[in-house]
Amino acid sequence: MTDMLTVIAPDGATKKGFDAGLSDEELVHCYRTMLLVRAFDDISLKMQRSGRIGFSIPNRGIEATQVGAASALRKTDWIFPSYRDFGMALYHGIPTVEMMHNMFGNAKDSAKGRQMPVHFSFVEPIRFYSISSPIGTHIPHAVGAAYASKMRGEDTVHLTSFGDGGTSSIGFHSGMNFAAVWKAPVVFLCQNNGYAISCPADEQTASDGYAIKAEAYGMPHTTVDGNDLLAVRQAVLDAAERARKGEGPTMIESVTFRMGGHSTSDDPTKYVPKELLEEWEKKDPVERFRRHLEKRGLWSQDVEDRLRKDTLEEVRVAAKEAEDTAKPGLETIFSDVYADVPNHLREQGEFLFDLSKRRGEAAAGDGEFPL
Amino acid sequence: MTDMLTVIAPDGATKKGFDAGLSDEELVHCYRTMLLVRAFDDISLKMQRSGRIGFSIPNRGIEATQVGAASALRKTDWIFPSYRDFGMALYHGIPTVEMMHNMFGNAKDSAKGRQMPVHFSFVEPIRFYSISSPIGTHIPHAVGAAYASKMRGEDTVHLTSFGDGGTSSIGFHSGMNFAAVWKAPVVFLCQNNGYAISCPADEQTASDGYAIKAEAYGMPHTTVDGNDLLAVRQAVLDAAERARKGEGPTMIESVTFRMGGHSTSDDPTKYVPKELLEEWEKKDPVERFRRHLEKRGLWSQDVEDRLRKDTLEEVRVAAKEAEDTAKPGLETIFSDVYADVPNHLREQGEFLFDLSKRRGEAAAGDGEFPL
Amino acid sequence: MANLTLIQALNDGLKTAMANDDSVVVFGEDVGPKGGVFLATEGLTNEFGEQRCFDTPLSEDGIVGTAVGMAMNGLRPVAEIQFQDFIFPAFDQIVSEAAKLRYRSGGQYTAPMVIRTPYGGGIRGGLYHSQSGEAYFAHTAGLKVVIPSTPRDAKGLLLASIQDPDPVLFLEPKALYRSVKGEVPEGEFTVDLSTLRTVREGRDVTVFCYGAMVPVVEKAAAQAEEQRGIKSLVVDLRTLLPLDEEGVLEAAKQTGRVVVVHEAPRFCGYGAEISALIAENCIEYMEAPVKRVTGFDTPFPNTLEHHYLPDDRRVLDAIEEVYNF
Amino acid sequence: MANLTLIQALNDGLKTAMANDDSVVVFGEDVGPKGGVFLATEGLTNEFGEQRCFDTPLSEDGIVGTAVGMAMNGLRPVAEIQFQDFIFPAFDQIVSEAAKLRYRSGGQYTAPMVIRTPYGGGIRGGLYHSQSGEAYFAHTAGLKVVIPSTPRDAKGLLLASIQDPDPVLFLEPKALYRSVKGEVPEGEFTVDLSTLRTVREGRDVTVFCYGAMVPVVEKAAAQAEEQRGIKSLVVDLRTLLPLDEEGVLEAAKQTGRVVVVHEAPRFCGYGAEISALIAENCIEYMEAPVKRVTGFDTPFPNTLEHHYLPDDRRVLDAIEEVYNF
Ligand SMILES: Cc1ncc(C[n+]2csc(CCOP(=O)(O)OP(=O)(O)O)c2C)c(N)n1
Ligand SMILES: Cc1ncc(C[n+]2csc(CCOP(=O)(O)OP(=O)(O)O)c2C)c(N)n1
Ligand SMILES: [Mg+2]
Ligand SMILES: [Mg+2]
């Protein structure tokens, strides 16, 4: 295994004179964001179990990669995320309630309740690209968007995030190849979290890690300790720098571990060895960063208690508001298929409006379908 | 550029004591096969220009790669060829006339006149897999077939051949990855002939050559001088050996040059620099091997004259026979869609038979359609 | 006979096929130790070993492409695509390769294989875990397209598909995986492909349906009879390609009034072919124009999916409409 | 006005679009220096530079996938797929991404882009250089599907497609590239999408067609009139999705006798939707069942392609059949 870029030692220390380029406030913001992701995870899981939402994706273990990467980007950059990148959105100040609107698929959801939970889409305050379920399809999108930025002479960076499993997708192959040929300003962030649902690395590919796949495309690559927030930040900063200078794309493999199930529908105990999980729990990225803050004198039990209370409260309030928000209107079934609603859709819409009037919304209860 | 495996020096000499493992007869057979490919090319081009056939694919420049690779395989092995691998079929004794039947798409064509010319399919005397126009789709087929052989404990090798452009296809990405994970007995032969139609290497990929792409899959790879028949043979022998021993797949990049157009519809002068072509003409693979035979005392002008006369004659006779063979019957439009002809196809067939009876075959002239 | 859910019947079918034929191999994403996200392949790796039931890398193109290679070289691959929504990366391998191999090679190479995949709505899956793509495949000569709606058919059609000499796309109505239960013969047994199933007899209106819409239509047909005395002939198409066209026309002629139901969008959906076939071939028997009840011509929504999916009320309205035409 | 072939009109359309809008970029395999295998893009790299017209690696998935990214970030990409037969590796990007992006993002991200590709038979291309896949795409909500049949429409519809806010699949009848010539307005001009073109007036039989079948139908219609005095109303659909359904029904009602013609296989082909639409919506006007004249339900053959493709004789027979019904 190629050795990894590391900045924060297990005990939280960094090399003398190392400068992460983050103010104390920003460092604390990073920590708070990770706690916010955990709060979001925990409350979402509870809500899913109690049937208040249908589905969620746990982020436990990946927080440092998400937040470290996000901290290296500007608001003018684009993020082409996977469905396991909550922290990137939260770091850049996308309101928790906006994300909860999506979890509930309500009328205020930017996706208008059309997508499953965790399929976020935002344009403000940063472009957090609409998440698609198919794996890897967003990778060439980042490359095309980057080509456009480059053609206009902007110094915008396009970061696309995907998993270890995502490297087997066709979008990875075409996206990496096109980006390298075009010297497009893209950062390819592969989050190697050990599994693709139940498929472990050695069944996913025979390569020694994932970063080396960049060799196939003549693209520079680095491997970083994904549980080390500052290491991930540094790797993305360097890659973004190259991109802005017109030197082309970089692939970063962030080695981390999915400490939860793949989703709320998954039972990882069926395939994740207990010892492996325990081993990684010792490397918890949040605890690692906490120690770093402590060494810097930015952490105390008070701070901890306040942040945890805050973040839990923030998520609770957001969940409550989202849950109390009305469902999308019937018209959302027919709008946004095209810029204008064509006649056949107008007719189909009128049919449905009329039908639901005749039957009264009563019949429009959810969960009618089994499974 | 990684250095290449070479066996035959430009002057035809090989290192002292080098043994290609080929008898004199076999060495001459290799040479004759290359001449046969050239004869096939030349006559096909003439026939296409005079409208006797619709299309052909030139092989000039690639003969050593085709024949060298074929010479390393057993009759029990499978070849999953590209459309530019005539030499592999001819080396293994697939009758020239069988190939001509396909060029004319007549009743004796193994594809029953359904495919374009050069889309060969054979099962005897070696499995030369049905050629498909879509690039790269045959690569995972070789991997699946290899999995089956491995599962049954056979020592069969599956060689799949594709071009530099083919490495950008999705079949390359999935085929290479699956083969490496499964340790499947596959030899991936990438014929880097400089162009994908008009697209040169540097627009196809940013990698330094193509063999290095195997790194992405944790697969061993070699780069060979593709105009050196014995070097290609050696590389394939070694890869096949690994495969038979259960050590898994190998990727071989054969560096050569397409000295003709992409096809009879292409005008390469629009995009191939004159100097580049001239440079490669000096490296002609047939001449290179001829010198080697001469050094071995296997070549004389008499031999040359006889072989050239022979091969031209063989192709002419084959072409004549194929041209004189009847067209496929109307039923071939409806058979082989499924193992049995379902009712709706039976009805459609009867409709067509009846129609062509009513109109008399007269109306069934070709080339009615423009372009 | 055992009383099984549809997913249990599929699992039973796979076990039966693997036990009776060593050349049957099952693979796909998460089908091994995890047993598939819907547990259709649960226990297979344990029982038959890692060589015969195993996980693959995340590539549908690779899954289908290697299945074609296995099939041409003596195996009987049964590949799983985790959701039909994710089959499109393999579209080229299915449409250009598996479906055309026998034809283009004059029968020298063939692809006897099965691609299993869960399709359809009802699980709050939104755009990408709910689609019904049958029409994309039913337009493809050389392919067979099968959709069961009962546990018995699920096993019998699956075994027939695995034994079939041609490639079969086997679409599984995920909404019915656990919601329907029924008697299923034990061990080897098959249900012939390209045969229709009469779900309910009736002389007033003929309703064609398949997959997860069958129980919905049954419910509507029962209501039509109870509430209005309209007797519906309900036909489960089961095999969409090749279709038993004679059987379809027969069933249409029996009532002269036809409703076609599917979840997929209407425009260029499978129902268009059924509607066209009937209108073109038995116009003289028709008392009313064919009525299609389908999903809307939009992507599949999430929160409002129950408004998108045809339900018994919409089917009942249609039955009455053609009856009263 | 200039007298151009269809391929010249397309080239003129691309030049016009690129000259009037810097955000228009053209790319695909061999579209640069070579000018495309059919020369549709000839001269563009010279005139507009390598940044705006360039070759790509051999990946349709990459071509369409990057086009989506360009489109959402301010460019107007016009991607070429060398043959429609080779579009399937991009099927996922077209169907799952381009077509669904606006919907799934609530309009935050959109994909105004054009995918140009030559389709259809007539060049002795066999299985993989002859296909007509329009039905695979016309079933996809969120996508627009356009097929011109004259040089004028080729340019006008192409410019309208490039300006359209939604993704457009622009299918070009390669058999007509050089065989039809006609007057084409110079400079900027558009032909509205989702409008039909009346090719020939007539009150006896309505024939719906598009692309390369239009000249074939015109020939047959002329024969029908000369030889039998049957006057055909010939309609070129031009935009298959979204379809002008009212216009189609209007044209059908005018004669009550309808023939639908396309090259693609019949089963679940585009003609099924037209046939179903008419049978369902204007049965009371119909004097005869709709007749479909299509390719056979097989892959596309090579040597015998002239038997596979509908020709004027087959169309004429159909016109007479519905006329004499
Ligand atoms: C094309 C496609 N195939 C299959 C799936 C089903 N699926 C959803 S997530 C997933 C695993 C992804 O693993 P990885 O890329 O490592 O990301 P992670 O979930 O570990 O973050 C699979 C197979 C899908 N969404 N898309
Ligand atoms: C999927 C697909 N896209 C495009 C084409 C059109 N095409 C035919 S050959 C070719 C170039 C192939 O180049 P390469 O792989 O280098 O093989 P070569 O012809 O040089 O031997 C292209 C683009 C195709 N056949 N299939
Ligand atoms: Mg993972
Ligand atoms: Mg090449």
Largest interface by residue count?
A-C, 54 and 53 residues
Low-confidence stretches of chain A: 362-371
- Beta-sheet strand percentage of chain A? 5-15%
Strand order across the largest sheet of chain C? 3-2-4-5-7-6-12
Tell me roughly what share of residues is in helical segments of chain A.
Answer: 40-55%
What molecules are bound to this protein?
thiamine diphosphate, magnesium ion
What is the typical, i.e. mean, pLDDT of chain C?
Answer: 98
How many DSSP H or I helices of chain C? 12
Q: How many strands, what sense, and barrel or not for the largest sheet of chain C?
A: 7 strands, mixed
Number of distinct beta strands of chain A:
8
Mean pLDDT over the full residue set of chain A:
95
Number of helices of chain A: 12
Helix/strand structural class of chain C = alpha/beta
For the termini of chain A, the CA-CA separation is 42 Å
> How would you sum up the global shape of chain A?
globular
Gyration radius of chain A (Cα, Å) is 21 Å
Number of strands of chain C: 14
Radius of gyration of CA atoms of chain C, rounded to a whole number: 19 Å
